[in-house]
Structure formats: C-alpha cells, structure tokens
Amino acid sequence: MFDGNNENIVSQFTNLNEWVENWLSKKINRNLMHKNDYRWNRKWWSFPEVKEVLGCLFEAWKYYYSNPNGDGKAIWWKDFCYPLLDRIMNYRGPFAIEVIDETQENYYELPCEKEV
C-alpha cells in the first residue's frame, strides 16, 4: 500500500477517521484482554476527549512524517504517540468502562467502526 515515501503516506489520509481506521489502528497492537491493561472502543470517535487527542496526534503525524531530515517518525512515536495513547488507552482513562471482549485474540489491530 505504501511505497516508503513519507510524503505519499501523509497525502493518502485527508481526515482523522480515515487515518485512525487505515493507518493508526493497523500500527498499534495492545493486549485488550486483561482488565488492568489497555482499553479501546471501536467507536472511539464518540468520546470527545479521545477524538480531540487523536486529532492532535494526526496533525503532529502529518508534520513529523513529512520531516525531510528523517528523524520525524522517531520523534512522533517517542514524544507524541506513545505518551498520548498510553493516556487515553489506560484502564483508568476515557475507555475505563469498556467491557473486555474475551472472544478477541490477546494482541490484534485496534478495531474501528466508521463514524456515522
């Protein structure tokens, strides 16, 4: 799907929903089974805090993945993605009330539904 050219990757995603569903959810694998680990909701867009934080991540991603110096990806992951995802996916975060779906594999792509 991607040819390795950062500018091509960035230009393929024009909105947040598209980016979360087709890029971010494919890159992030977390154990969503254990009650003291990470939480996620396939309707992430219905949580205002989560939508705002992911929107910020998307904007930073576009900037840093377009970085011609080559260090933009590492900066984005280290300084933006990991700390913010750890915060919103924390078992005490916005998805705290999520019921654990025990039919899922321990590690898998983040499930997403399209925003209606």
Relevant terms:
single chain; 4 helices; 2 strands
Structure commentary:
The chain is mostly helical. The protein has one domain. The protein has helices spanning 6-11, 16-27, 48-65, 72-88, and strands at residues 29-31, 107-109. A two-stranded antiparallel ribbon has the order 1-2. Helix 3 packs antiparallel against helix 4 (72-88). It is globular. The model has no long low-confidence stretch (mean pLDDT 84).
Question: How is this fold's topology laid out?
Answer:
Blueprint: H1 6-11, H2 16-27, E1 29-31, H3 48-65, H4 72-88, E2 107-109
Antiparallel strand pairs: 1-2
What is the typical, i.e. mean, pLDDT? 84
Poorly predicted residue ranges:
none
Helix/strand-derived category reads mainly alpha
Question: What is the strand tally?
Answer: 2
**Into which percentage range does the β-strand content fall?**
5-15%
Number of helices: 4
Strand order of the largest sheet: 1-2
Beginning-to-end CA distance, first to last residue: 26 Å
Biggest β-sheet strands, sense, barrel: 2 strands, antiparallel
Share in helix: 40-55%
Provide the domain count: 1
> Overall 3D geometry?
globular
Rg, alpha carbons: 14 Å
Secondary-structure element order, as H and E?
HHEHHE
In short:
The chain is mainly alpha-helical and 116 residues long.
